[in-house]
Amino acid sequence: MPLLPWLVGTWVLGLLLPVPLSPFVLGFGVAGLLLGTLRGHVRRPWRLACLGLASCVLSAAWAHWRTPHELPDDIARLAPRRWAVIAGRIASDPLPSPRGWRFEVEVRSLVAPWREPVAGRVMARYQGPERPRYGSLVHLEGSLNRPSPAMNPGEFSYRDYLARDGIYATLSARRLQVVEAASWSLLGTAIALKDRCMAVLSHHLPADRASLLGSLLLGSGASPIDEETAESFRTLGLGHLLAVSGAQILIIVEALQGLCLALGLRRRLAIPLCVGAIAFYGLMTGLPPSVLRAIVMASLSLLFWGARRHGRSLVPLLLAAWGMLVYHPPWLLDLGFQFSVLATFALQHTTPILAERFTGMPETWARTIASTLAAALWVTPLQLMTFGQLSAWTLVANLGAMLAIEVLTIAGAGLLVLALVLGPIGLGVGVTPFFWPLDWLLCAMTGSVDLLNRLPGASHHLAPLEGWQCVAMYGCLGLMLWWVRRAALWRAAGILAIAALLPFVRAPRPDLEVHVLSVGQGDGIVLKTPGGRWYLIDCGPAWDGGDAGERVILPFLRRQGVRRLHGLVVTHAHADHLGGATSLLKGMPVDGVWEGGQAEDGALYGAFLCSLLERRIPFESVKAGTSTRLEADVWLEVLGPPVHPWHGTHSDCNNNSVVVKLRYGRTSILLAGDLEQEAERRLALEAGDRLRADVLKVSHHGSRFGSVPEFLQAVRPGVSVISVGERNLFRHPSAATLTRLRAFGPIYRTDRDGAVSFSSDGDEWHVRTVRNAAS
Length: 775
What we know:
- The chain is 47% helix and 17% strand.
- It is α+β, with helices and mostly antiparallel strands.
- The strands form 5 sheets. It has an 8-stranded mixed sheet, with no helix packed on it.
- The protein is globular.
C-alpha cells in the first residue's frame, strides 16, 4: 500500500478515537514512529503497521490538544443572561440573515451590568438597519445565551457546530455602538471588494438572478438566496452550486494560467501571482473548509506546474486534506469538507476509469458524463447517511449544471472585473447589455430546476443510512470499480445492484413507539405501531418565519423513512397545537384526520380546514367513546371531549381537547391534550379505571390549571412527560404541578431532555431521551 494514503487514512481514524492526551499515549505513538522508520531491522509490512499505529495514536492526542475547549474566563459562563453589554471587535464578515446581521465578535470585556474582563467569542445577531463593519470595536447590548443543542433525534446541533470553532455563546443584540472604526486589513479589503461586486450584480441584474449569480461566484454566505429556491436546488442534488467549491477554483486557476501564458510571464512570477489571486478570492468567499481545501490543492498543483511536473493526481488532495486536519481537526466533521473531498476524489480517481468505458462518443462528452456519474457514486452514500434524500433527476441536473457553471463563472467574473474598472470612470452603463446573456442563462437554469422538481421522482426520502450501511456501500463501490477496471462489467453491475439495495435493508422494529418531540411551547407526538403504521398527534406551534411542522416534525418523519401518515389527531385549535398543520399537510400525505369539532374563528384554523378540503383528506369530529383498532393488539380510545362540550370554564377550548389513550398489550399511555382542572375532575369521576395508564403526557404543558390530585390519582402514571418550551413566557411547568407529579414517578421534560421516546413490547415501556437526563 502507498505510504501517503495509509498515513492520511490512519490519521483520520485517530481523529475519531476518544484517546486522552497523556504521556503514556504520546510515548506509545513515538515508539511506533521509531519502529516504523527502522528500515534495516523491521520488514515493510510491520513498518507500515507501526507507522499506521503511531499516526493513529498521535492524531488522537493531537486532536485532543488542538480541538477548542471552553476556558474558565469565556463569556459563555455568564449565559443565560437577559441583558448584558459587551465590548469586542467584529471578527467576521457580517452576513444578512432572516433576523438581521450575523457575525462573530472577539470579546474583550463585559461592560454591564458590571465590568469584568472576559474572553472568548460570541455569535451575534443584530437587527439594526445598518450593516456593521468587519474589524470595528463595538459595544453590543442584548441577551446572552448558550447556542441551541439538538433536541430531537438526528437533528442538527447548532451548539456543536459553533463549538467546533470555539464559540460557546450567542448574543441577540438590540443596540450596537461603534467605539472605534475598523483599521485597514487584507480581509477587510476582500470583504469591501465582495460587497462592491454584489452591488454591481444588483445594478445590472434583477434581484433574484443577482443573488443567484452572486451565490455561484462568491458563495451562499456572501449572497444568500431565498429558501424556496435553495430548497429546489438541494432537492436535485445541486446544493453545491450555491456554495463556491473546487469547480469555481479550478476554472479560475485555469483562466489565470492561460492569462499568464498569454502575457508571456515566467512561471516563477506567474505562480505567486496565481496563488495570491485565488487566496484573495478565498477571503472574499469567507474561506469555508471546502474553499480552503480547493485553494490548498490548487496551490500545490500550481507548484507542480511551476516545476514542470505533473505529479500523482491524488497527492495534492491527500496533502491538502491532511494539512487542514492537522491545523484544525474539527473540520473532519464539517459536511462541506466531507462532500468536497469525496467529490474531488471521485473526479481525480474514478472519472478516468469510467471515461474509458464510454467508447464511441466524443472525448469531451465521455469525460463530462463520467465525471458527473463518478461524483454521484461517491457522494450518494454520505448524502443518504446525512439527509436520507435522493432524486431520480440528479444526474440529468448535474450534467446540465456542469455545462452552465463554467460559462457563468468565466463570463460572470470577467464582466464583474470589467464593470469594476469602467464604473469609476462613468462607463459602467455600457456593460449592462453584456449581462443580458447571463440573465437568460440564469433564467433557463432556474426554469429547468423548477421543471425537474415537478417531475415524478424529483424527491425520494429514505431513513438515513446507519454507519454499517454507509461503510458497506463504499466497500461495494470500491469493489465495483475494481471489476470495471478489469472489464468485468456484469460483475460490476451486480455489485452496484447490491449497493443500491443496501439502503432498504433495515432491522425490524416490532415495538410500539411514541416520540414526544421537542417542538417548543406546544405538542407534537409521533406514534409508530409494531406493523410500521405512523400517526401524529398535534403539529406544534408556529412563529415568525416558520413553524414546527416544517422545521421539526417533517424532518423527523423523513429521517425515519416515513412517506405517509395513516392518521393525524388535532387535539384542539390553539396555535401551539395547530400551528404546523398546514406545512405538514403540504409536505406529507395523510390518510385521515380526527379533531374535536371546535369551530375557532381564526385564520390558522381556517387555513387548516382549507388544506384538508384542497387535498380531499377525510376528517371527523370525535367525542368520548370513540375507539379504533390501529392493528392487532393496538387500540386508540378517545376519552374526551365530552358529548356535551364545556362552556363557561377558564378555557373551553383547552377543556374540550381530544384526549386519547393508546393501549398495546399490557402497556398504555394517556395523552391528555391541554385539559384543565374542570375537565380533569369530571374525567376522573366518569372514566374511573379507564384512565389508568403507565405513561402520562401531562396536560397543558404542566400548567398550574391542570394535573389536579383527583386526576393524577385516577391515572397513577409510573412516568410523566411534559411537552414544554424552554424559558417560555407562561413559566410552564408550575412548581406545584411538578411536586404532585413527582409523587408518582420520574418526570421527563422536552425543554431539558429534548425529545422523549417510549417503546413498548406489550409488557413494559423503555424510555430514552436525546439528552439522557431525567428530572
